[in-house]
Amino acid sequence: MTASAIPACLPPREVSRPKRPLPPGACDTHAHVFGPSDRFPYAEDRSYTPPDAPLEKYLAMLHAIGFARGVLVQGSAHGRDNSAMLDALRRTPDRLRGIAVADASVSPATLREWNALGVRGLRFNHFFRGGQLHYRGGIPLTEAERLAPVMAELGWHLQLWIDVKDLPQTIPLLKSLHLPVVIDHMGRTDARAGTGTEGFQSLLRAVGDGWCWAKLSGAHRLSQQAPDYPDARPFHEALVMANPERLVWGGDWPHPRVEGEMPDAGHLLELFQQWTPDEATQQRILVANPARLYGFPN
Fold first, then answer.
1. The CATH number of domain 22-294 is 1.10.260.40
2. In the 8-state DSSP scheme, what is residue 34?
3. How far apart are CA 91 and CA 40, in angstroms?
């Protein structure tokens, strides 16, 4: 695909500050830094071109909403070059952690160097549309088997971008890796399918059994009913009921390749607060769980 044919993403909206302040140590566990492209070029073979969203803009977003900590996830627009994300970790070591992408050609020594910078897992792409991976530049799940031993040595987890319709047949492979697994965006299903599908029910069992985590993120990716996404709420509530000890929250800023209306990350957080009214559960999901999963100090 030529550069002119690659779709460009809209810039993120200005975020609103939630009316209810966050607890100390709260962590947004899913966001991306992109560029600046003159320093960190985008991959030639990419599915989208994001607006530059460098570290400074990301930190301003965290400040505006009230997050003390954040987790950066390598976005596919940069392909397998983690430089922008690693640079952000290097510059903000106490506040940020990262999830990288790597295939089996990356040496264990390199992964150990990343660990020292704050990387705590690798992301794999098992998200299909029309029989093909929907995002170019990601790492297929088949690479995980050869990376699993060093990931286990480092105490890392496997983050998986998957539509839960494909989860039931994927679970045997995931369990065979003997790694903690984190599923993106509540399983990135279509909210119109409802919570009773075989795929989402398999996610609820995996979270309930404790070997799998889920991100309470991406309501705007499940639902087209902006800005409150009411049909995504049952998925959120079902996961909280299944096991709040295995959940974290993320805003997905700057919302690359969003389908539909650009969300407000501050409003997404307010929806989390509304959909999770128990303050002790909010504390667990926003503070205690990410501290444990990503190795932040208590």
1. no
2. B
3. 15
